[in-house]
Amino acid sequence: MERIKHDIISGSLTPGAKVDSVRDLAARFSVNPNTMQKALSELEREELLHAERTAGRFVTTNKLLIESIRYKEARNVTEGFIKQMKSLGYSEEEIIEFLPYSFKEEE
């Protein structure tokens, strides 16, 4: 479920895109089809996916919803990063000073 949600909010699965079948997804993620069905049902409950009776499941076209969930996930990642840095003994000021160097290492 988390992987599919990540693919939606990162743009790997675009709004309106058809999602693979339960069996195909279960095989890809090495899980039981019943487990995959539950995960997809949960994503439908969150309105990230919707089912069309004979055509399959599709990613929502609600870009505002996708962006809202993306923002929440980014906040969670950021808060986790800050907690980890603080557990290493860094102060808020040191964390802020550290960030520009992190971006330079990616280039």
TrEMBL record:
Annotated keywords: DNA-binding, Transcription, Transcription regulation
PROSITE patterns: HTH_GNTR
Occurrences of domain HTH gntR-type (ranges): 1-62
GO molecular function, one term: DNA binding
Matching InterPro entries: Tscrpt_reg_HTH_GntR, WH-like_DNA-bd_sf, WH_DNA-bd_sf
Protein name, UniProt field: GntR family transcriptional regulator
Species of the source: Aminipila luticellarii
Origin organism lineage: Bacteria, Bacillati, Bacillota, Clostridia, Peptostreptococcales
